[in-house]
Amino acid sequence: MRFFDSHCHFDFPEFDADRAAVWQKAQAHRVYGLAMPGVYPAQWERLVAMTLATPDFYFSLGIHPCWIYQVDVSQLALAKYTEQIENLLASMPPTEQYRFVAIGECGLDKTIELPLVQQQEIFAWHIQLANHWRKPLMVHSLKTHNELIALCKKNKPRYGGVVHAFSGSYDTAMQLIDMGFYLGAGGTITYERAQKTRATFSRVPCEAIVLETDGPDMPLCGQQGQRNDPCNTARVAQVLAELRGENVEALAAQLWENTCRLFQLPGAPITQ
Hints:
By secondary structure, this protein is α/β, with parallel strands linked by helices.
């Protein structure tokens, strides 16, 4: 078996003291791919450098809604951020540019004070970037699935994306899947009280699921208060297989294939 952590903030300071050891342990748990989301422009350069220094690391570039208040989001600034992405990609060896797998982390969040209208404007900019670079979106959506669906119907992400840490209903999940989104399964499904989320992941097509940890956040059941890390990807896969009543080896193979297709990695299966 092999596993891909499709969403882990492995560049965050929580991993600075033992990052190499954690990744070595993750590989011992058969985690052979990891995607790190961009969350604000000042982070992007270090994120790219860390990715290029480690085989099997991948990255996305975006502005997380919780970081929007820290940056200038005027039209002039957004143009500069677009130029910054162009320059970062131009600085990469052409043979390594496949490691740029998505636009994001971006999205909508009703639990923060930033007005939703402003969040929607920035998210629309991310959709433009994703369509320009022919990349999927890496989406954060907290209590905003209806708004997310409405915005994506109005301004379609042509290369789909993934709604990470999905915790909505089955009906909402299928709407997103029909629009070309994958669903990120993470630590939430390990909690028995998360009945709606567990029921959703037990029913949706396995071809539309990818694994994630969201490390260092979203610890698994039994690990509350501890740092989450990519080693837990295997445990999430095991719980997902149990919820679905499926063989974990076969499911793991499908989930790996899904992630490669989502991120358009070399050798990924092509959807007709």
